[in-house]
Amino acid sequence: MKEKIVIANWKMKLGQKESLDLAKQMKDKFKDLKNGQVVICPSFLSIPEVKKIFKGSKIKLGAQNVCSNENGANTGEISPTMLTEAGCEYVIVGHSERRNYMLENYEMIHLKLKAVLNTDKLMPIVCIGENFEERKTDRRDFVLVHQLQQSLGGLSLLQNQRIIIAYEPIWAIGSGTAIEPAEAEYAHKIIKLTLNDLFGPQIASDHFSIVYGGSITSKNVKGFVNLENTDGLLVGGASLNADEFFKVVKAVIK
Ligand code: PEP
């Protein structure tokens, strides 16, 4: 059985003081965490100070974005190695908010993914998911397969390289209503089958985890806990409150 993982995406919602206060609360809440993996993705600027707070705890650090280049004339960007130097072990790649507002496409996401894997020290969390129009017109399955092909096609993974695929239906993110767990599981099955096609069943199973993201709260989390192809969750809004996030995590990680 794969280790369960819950990832918190703080987006651009917290200033420095709020980030550090929340990090302290999280450290305290999760002091007895033994199994599973909890990953917090603060803003870039808070990462070094949050890292200091998490010292001695089992909580891991992630970033919300990364550059596809390691070094060079990339004004305003942060490289994969810079993230590892700052203490990150995970990084979100291709979040739908970046696809929508920063016009990131899957070609760019593919390059970012390659750069991240090259460091050997960062685990990418690749976001995929359909928008409302695509869902309404029954194109979800096609969209998921296409996004996976574009982002992962042509990659060959080394023994130690792992990738997390986050299925995030865009219309559910920040909406307050998660999709039905059975629908998430169906989408995860499509993802699993596509990974089997791209990499073969052994690599698909050993090197990939699949998580769901989109309006998860302590009230709806139970439905997502025991699904066959769901290894964890990506949580936005509900990760901004330590008590609420703790309840979500406790439902997933026993
Ligand atoms: C997200 O931003 O990836 C996310 C899942 O947000 P929320 O939980 O707020 O829908």
TrEMBL record:
**Which InterPro entries does the record cross-reference, listed alphabetically?**
Aldolase_TIM, TIM_sf, TrioseP_Isoase_bac/euk, Triosephosphate_isomerase, Triosephosphate_isomerase_AS
Pfam families documented for this protein: TIM (PF00121)
What are the recorded GO MF terms, alphabetically?
triose-phosphate isomerase activity
Top-level class of the enzyme under EC nomenclature: isomerase
Positions binding substrate in this chain are: N9, W10, K11, G174, S215, G236, G237
Does the record carry Transmembrane helix as a key word? no
The Enzyme Commission number assigned here is: 5.3.1.1
Q: Which reaction does it catalyse?
A: D-glyceraldehyde 3-phosphate = dihydroxyacetone phosphate
SUPFAM superfamilies noted in UniProt: Triosephosphate isomerase (TIM) (SSF51351)
User: One Gene Ontology cellular component annotation?
Assistant: cytosol
Where in the cell is the protein located?
Answer: Cytoplasm
Query: Does this UniProt record's set of keywords contain Signal?
Result: no
- What biological process terms from GO does the record include? gluconeogenesis; glyceraldehyde-3-phosphate biosynthetic process; glycerol catabolic process; glycolytic process
Pathway(s) served: Carbohydrate biosynthesis; gluconeogenesis; Carbohydrate degradation; glycolysis; D-glyceraldehyde 3-phosphate from glycerone phosphate: step 1/1
> Where is this protein primarily located?
cytoplasm
Keywords attached to this entry: Cytoplasm, Gluconeogenesis, Glycolysis, Isomerase
Origin, by domain of life? Answer: Bacteria
Active site per UniProt: H95 (electrophile), E168 (proton acceptor)
Q: Give the UniProt family note.
A: Belongs to the triosephosphate isomerase family.
- Share what the entry says about its subunit structure, partners included: Homodimer.
Q: Which PANTHER family match?
A: TRIOSEPHOSPHATE ISOMERASE
- UniProt-recorded name of the protein: Triosephosphate isomerase
Native species: Candidatus Falkowbacteria bacterium GW2011_GWF2_39_8
